[in-house]
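Subject: Sanity check before I submit

Could someone independently write out the structure tokens for this chain? I want to compare against mine line by line before I put it in a report. The sequence has 112 residues.
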Amino acid sequence: QVQLVESGGGLVQAGGSLRLSCAASGIPFSINIMGWYRQAPGKQREFLAFITTAGTANYADSVKGRFTISRDNAKNTVYLQMNNLKPEDTAVYYCKGWPGYWGQGTQVTVSS
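---
Independent answer below. Compare away.
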């Protein structure tokens, strides 16, 4: 059974930082592309970043330079370090394991 469990969300002031984690089980993590998405109220789910098995990362322009994705294959975990957070970053953040496995999401709220 595939399971992706996100953690690390919460309430932070603008300019602050959070680190999200996504622990994976039931999928061959070390050979899977992993990524992060987010969905704000009333908006479509938005791609943020993905990381390949070799550690190559790709980012959406909206978060490039502020967010960093990383992975620890030994722990079956992918991370999203978020710095200089803005109120518009407020959303539910989801972890994705390719081709189509999703976590339940974790809420991030950035206050102004």
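---
OP: Matches mine. For the report I'm noting this point. The two ends are 40 Å apart (CA to CA).
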